[in-house]
Automatic annotation (TrEMBL):
Residues 1-22 are annotated as: Disordered. This is SpoIIE family protein phosphatase. Keywords: Hydrolase. SUPFAM superfamilies: PP2C-like. Residues 1-13 have a biased composition (Basic residues).
Amino acid sequence: MPRTRCCRCRPTPRPRPTTGWRASASTGWATCLLALVDPGQGTCTFAGAGHPPPVLLHPDAPAELVHVPTGPPLGTDLGGYEALTLPVRPGTVLLMYTDGLIEDRRRDIDSSLRRLTHLSLDLDGPLESVVDALLARLVHGTTEDDVTLLATRLRAP
């Protein structure tokens, strides 16, 4: 089954790990978001450890912020994680990102998440175009934190 992925990074002057993890060398913890796609069942199972929530970009419906039950960051030894499984139709784009996309001193996170989920995007083209459009509309100038986007599209079996 063909799979399509796209990742774009916009680094900040100070490098940090940016591939789904946000690590703190001084404290020994990291945030993480796990998404396990089962194309045969048409589902995606999510689990979170202090990472920003994923977004499902639907080709024929509004974008959906996935309210993943949030567990503590990895390495804190604070306890359990819950999984959430949702149906995902072919053509849906799963978007995961670092907090640099939504955290900004000039805007609260809820406002940034609303902006992200209310964008009108053409999802029919290449994922690179979707990610480039997201970056162009949401990131302006220099950011205080790194910005990394990971997008994947579920194809029909």
